[in-house]
Task: inverse folding
């Protein structure tokens, strides 16, 4: 799998986590499943999205940032 | 304990271990509650299950981790909202959700707003979700219009170089569970 495809799957995981844990029908009921690990994944992938942004700006013309 | 997976049209017939529990013309799809902590693989399995169920009929995903004691409790939990669920199911029928995020510098916010406005025209419904990005949008798109929508995202990326635009999907209608 190419580096780009890996990044895409990880970005998709951010969308999946947002949707499964933050979307969907909310029903008043007992919610018992533990999702602590997922929160950590979420935070690290937020960082990945930020790094995509940085990479884009580094490639754009007219900037002289060192790699 | 059982987990509520989705609200669906009454005709949907899932395979075991998922069960369709009927209530007033609709069905609440239930599965044995998972044990242990969820991780990324658990969530992808849920996504795959929902996508397979969507091939059979229209559904509204339920928030992950919604657990009740038994099927009677499941019906009791969903029955009072039956009419709202029926309206939402009609609203999402034949459509899927696409996610579009745009990241970029703060001064690109007006561009992100234009990207959202352009994409919203191509969608049956659209919503801006919260987040750190310049745009975190969800779009309810007719199944037959997904390719056109993705092509439009590509054009918008070429027009708005200050933004890095990321599109994922199709997703079940997680962000459109209330009729617009």
Result:
């Amino acid at each position: 799998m190419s580096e780009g495809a890996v990044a895409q799957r990880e970005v998709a995981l951010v969308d999946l986590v947002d949707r499964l844990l933050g979307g969907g029908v909310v029903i008043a009921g007992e919610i018992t499943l533990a999702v602590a690990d997922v929160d950590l994944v979420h935070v690290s992938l937020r960082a990945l999205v930020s790094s995509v942004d940085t990479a884009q700006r580094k490639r754009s013309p007219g900037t002289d940032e060192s790699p | 304990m059982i987990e509520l997976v989705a609200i669906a049209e009454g005709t949907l017939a899932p395979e075991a271990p998922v069960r369709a529990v009927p209530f007033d013309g609709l069905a609440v799809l239930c599965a044995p509650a998972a044990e242990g902590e969820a991780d990324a693989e658990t969530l992808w399995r849920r996504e795959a299950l929902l996508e397979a169920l969507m091939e059979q009929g229209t559904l509204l995903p339920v928030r992950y981790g919604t657990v009740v004691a038994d099927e009677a409790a499941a019906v009791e939990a969903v029955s009072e909202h039956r009419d709202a669920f029926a309206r939402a199911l009609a609203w999402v029928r034949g459509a899927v959700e696409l996610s579009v995020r745009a990241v970029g510098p703060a001064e690109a916010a007006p561009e992100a707003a234009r990207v959202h406005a352009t994409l919203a025209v191509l969608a049956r419904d659209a919503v801006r979700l919260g987040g750190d990005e310049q745009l975190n949008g969800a779009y309810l798109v007719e199944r037959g219009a997904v390719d056109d929508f993705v092509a439009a995202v590509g054009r918008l990326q070429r027009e708005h170089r200050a933004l890095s635009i990321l599109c994922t999907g199709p997703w079940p209608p997680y962000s459109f569970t209330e009729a617009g």
